[in-house]
Amino acid sequence: MPSRHIWPLYALLLSALAWVFFADVLTLGLDTHDAETFRDHERIAGNFAYFFSPAKEQASGRPAAEIVKFLYFMALGNDPAAFHLLSLALHVLCSFLLARVVLQCGATLELSLLGGLLFLCNIAHFQVVHYISALDYALALGIGALLAYRRYLITAKLAHLGAYYILLFTAVLRTTVHGSIFANTPVPTKHRTKVLRITLCHPPFLTYPPPPAIGHCTPCYWAP
């Protein structure tokens, strides 16, 4: 079967399995720190300056994540089921993107698809689906940054490099651990000069040094 048909079917499979395994999260209600988050939403809606206040009950220090949750609240209100559905959708997206990035890092198609499925189903260590405040994590952005950078190496288009930086910087605004993606992104030696030139010629890219040069692309390992 052509790969262009495999990925849409794979996305449908992930969605179906997510519903089988996690449909009950819609009835969970509030969990750790969720009530504090919802109260903060109400106060920010009354006075947006409260968004920047250190007096917030759930001040995570991750402004990108907090603004996304607040905008979601503005659209749907403090509905636990709606927020749990968003968590579940992001988990499915992460599983799909993980399979894509593993494939692009050199694994076989079968292994990549299996890895995404296992990540979807085996989250004993990863409570993001179960409580709303865990939306602070930014795994999808981090994996998306890796995919965009890989596309840049293939196409040499600045649009892909720009997408890499945008995704990475947004991920860092959610949690600084994602800065390690940049430092550990493999760059073939033949691309080193190009990456240096673009980094030096575009001031926004100076926030981070160029990725390290290596003799060949090696697999990228990622854990939540």
Task: Tell me the total number of β-strands.
Answer: 2
How do the strands line up in the largest sheet?
1-2
Count of individual domains:
2
Quaternary structure classification:
single chain
Shape: globular
The helix count comes to 9
Distance between the termini: 31 Å
Mean pLDDT: 76
The string of secondary-structure elements, in order, is HHHHHHHHEHE
**How would a textbook summarize the main sheet?**
2 strands, parallel
Helical content (DSSP H or I, runs of 4+): 55-70%
Beta-strand fraction estimate = under 5%
The SS-based structural class is mainly alpha
If you compute it from the alpha carbons, what radius of gyration comes out, rounded to the nearest whole angstrom? 19 Å
Q: Uncertain spans, ≥5 residues at pLDDT below 50?
A: 177-184, 198-224
Overview of the molecule:
The chain has 224 residues and is an all-alpha fold. The protein has 2 domains: 3-136, no CATH class; 139-214, no CATH class. 60% of the residues lie in helices and 2% in strands. The chain is built from 9 helices and 2 strands. It has helices at 3-22, 34-46, 63-76, 80-104, 109-121, 139-155, 158-174, 179-183, 192-201, and strands at 187-188, 213-214. The protein has a two-stranded parallel ribbon with strand order 1-2. Strand 1 (187-188), helix 9 (192-201) and strand 2 (213-214) form a beta-alpha-beta unit. Helix 1 packs parallel to helix 5, helix 2 (34-46) crosses helix 3 (63-76) and helix 3 packs across helix 7 (158-174). The model is unreliable at 177-184 and 198-224 (pLDDT under 50).
